[in-house]
């Protein structure tokens, strides 16, 4: 759950806002309305699609819930040494 702080609170305790962002997004309000979001850089990169993504991350994504993924089993031929002669 995101933490919400006012612009005034943010200006008076930037360090506290950064510490709060360690555990999730911090919404900074301006006159009671959400105006900015403070989050860790690695989370930002993940959100814009530049983070390191594994197949497990992709399969765990909510959009992937309706996709059937049933890869074929590896055959024995992939486990035998290559013939280089």
TrEMBL record:
Residues 1-21 are annotated as: Disordered. Residues 9-21 have a biased composition (Basic and acidic residues). It comes from the Bacteria. Signal peptide: none annotated. Antitoxin component of a type II toxin-antitoxin (TA) system. Belongs to the phD/YefM antitoxin family. This is Antitoxin. It comes from Aliidongia dinghuensis.
